[in-house]
């Protein structure tokens, strides 16, 4: 069963392009809007599972809609679509519980993966955005790791198996797995296969 979706963007061409693309891919698009006020009304009326919203729109921005939905305890998962590669906006989106953040220049290549990931209750943030922001900032979560956990993470980034890590660090496989489980919790990673490996690869330069 496909997730129900509403979309909103004040650029008619982008809205039409996204709408046509999603319908062509057989997604369940209920309605679309060209401003934040109409988008919020569509969320209130249809209670869609996912709302794909432009950040900059007349009346309400995508972030303001996310804030209102959070305050009203709506279950709709908000996905923001934007040209903005701004750390402050990204942090605000995360603090409002936004489920997805897709850059417009990659929208048609990423939106399917984003919807499918968000439908499984896993947040999706554009890899291009994350790599752009990582240049400027070290994830705070990394600072919560112990030196041993950081060493385990560094070995994971080098594709080492639990056994190889254990041999290198003179600890048992079981202890390595325990460290991995603590790291996943501390980094707040989704409990999906390879999430730790993906994170370690993306942040390899921070582990040097």
From TrEMBL:
<feature type="domain" description="Response regulatory">
    <location>
        <begin position="4"/>
        <end position="119"/>
    </location>
</feature>
<dbReference type="GO" id="GO:0000160">
    <property type="term" value="P:phosphorelay signal transduction system"/>
</dbReference>
<dbReference type="GO" id="GO:0006355">
    <property type="term" value="P:regulation of DNA-templated transcription"/>
</dbReference>
<feature type="domain" description="HTH luxR-type">
    <location>
        <begin position="138"/>
        <end position="204"/>
    </location>
</feature>
<dbReference type="InterPro" id="IPR000792">
    <property type="entry name" value="Tscrpt_reg_LuxR_C"/>
</dbReference>
<dbReference type="Pfam" id="PF00072">
    <property type="entry name" value="Response_reg"/>
</dbReference>
<protein>
    <submittedName>
        <fullName>Transcriptional regulator</fullName>
    </submittedName>
</protein>
<dbReference type="InterPro" id="IPR011006">
    <property type="entry name" value="CheY-like_superfamily"/>
</dbReference>
<feature type="modified residue" description="4-aspartylphosphate">
    <location>
        <position position="54"/>
    </location>
</feature>
<dbReference type="Pfam" id="PF00196">
    <property type="entry name" value="GerE"/>
</dbReference>
<dbReference type="InterPro" id="IPR001789">
    <property type="entry name" value="Sig_transdc_resp-reg_receiver"/>
</dbReference>
<dbReference type="InterPro" id="IPR016032">
    <property type="entry name" value="Sig_transdc_resp-reg_C-effctor"/>
</dbReference>
<dbReference type="InterPro" id="IPR036388">
    <property type="entry name" value="WH-like_DNA-bd_sf"/>
</dbReference>
<dbReference type="InterPro" id="IPR039420">
    <property type="entry name" value="WalR-like"/>
</dbReference>
<keyword id="KW-0238">DNA-binding</keyword>
<dbReference type="GO" id="GO:0003677">
    <property type="term" value="F:DNA binding"/>
</dbReference>
<keyword id="KW-0597">Phosphoprotein</keyword>
